[in-house]
Amino acid sequence: MKLKLIFLTILLSCFFNVKSQQCTPTITSPRLGAMFPDKVVFCTTETETLSTTQTYGSYQWYKQMWDWQTPNPNPWVAIPGATSQSLVINGSTDMLYYFKVSVTGNDCTAESSPVLADGYAYGLPFLMANFTPGTYDEIAPGVYNVCTGASVVFENGFPAVYGMHTWFKCVPGSNPPSSTDPCIINGPTGDSYTAMTSGKYGFYACTEYCPTMCEMLSDMAFIQLNFGNWSFCSLGTGEVKTKENNLNIYPNPAAQFLYIGKESEKYTEVSIIDMSGRLILQKKDHKYNEAIDVNFLSAGTYLVVSKSSEGKTYKNKFIKR
């Protein structure tokens, strides 16, 4: 009798475990997990089908707008008419939304873990310039005088994301560039290029995940190099002069907090602008010892425009890690 009770207990336990597992919906799709475990990464404006791996009696799909804060303050909203086992989402309208499904069946109600529809997981390309100390001088944002004989190594800030590169020595006349554009540097197609002559350098690159998804650097992100026998070339100090139109910005690159300004000045306005010219953040009445939280920014290069209470305007670049 005791053995029968033990067997019955084990049998019931297995039954309820199986039932519990069947009542936990799991979302799947062709591209889910291809780059990140809990994300569907789109290629441009294509569609993607989300579905549950199990069949249930009823379904209701929900979506929630992405937010950089944790926990996410945006509400989950039921999608009208989304009551079947699958849901088709679109890369142009559903990007940066979370999705989940609530199901009922076999006397149980449960919901899935959320997945994110993401196209910005690529990170927009940005140009990193590596100089040899003592061989260059920044004369304006993105413009450098460089000693003859020195070299500057340019790199794509997201080398693992982008494959084929087209490098330029001036800003091309179209986007995408014509294969015969005179600005193209023939030969190099990797994620880095070493420059030893004057020019305005940048690149056009295509992602490896979506070979037809390509990005051109903004004109503002191109870097101008002027090679010559400049007066500072013989100093050998390894220092870079500070310009009057620049402010102290630190740390640079920055991961979370950024400090901007001079101790002797106050700033009526500080603006952070991305390389496409879009205003990302603006702060009024800023003081040099107040940290600006940039943790929510995507990795890349940004322009900081600061206006002092004396009417001066300063422009700086900083890199978000």
Q: Could you please describe the fold and organization of this structure?
A:
The structure is a single chain. This protein is mainly β and 321 residues long. Helix content is 7%, strand content 42%. Strands 2, 4, 5, 7, 8 and 9 form a 6-stranded mixed sheet that branches. Strands 11, 12, 14, 16, 17 and 18 form a 6-stranded mixed sheet that branches. A 4-stranded antiparallel sheet has the order 22-21-24-25, with no helix packed on it. A hairpin with a 2-residue loop joins strand 7 and strand 8. The chain starts with a helix and ends with a strand.
Q: What is the structural class?
A: mainly beta
What does the largest sheet look like?
6 strands, mixed
Which spans of ≥5 residues are poorly predicted at pLDDT below 50? Answer: 1-21, 235-244
**Strand percent estimate:** 35-45%
* Helix count from the secondary structure assignment: 1
Series of H and E elements:
HEEEEEEEEEEEEEEEEEEEEEEEEE
Compute the number of strand runs.
25
The end-to-end distance, rounded to whole angstroms, is 67 Å
Helix content: under 10%
User: How confident overall, as mean pLDDT?
Assistant: 82
Describe the structure concisely for a colleague.
By secondary structure, the chain is mainly beta. It is 7% helix and 42% strand. Residues 1-21 and 235-244 have low confidence and may be disordered.
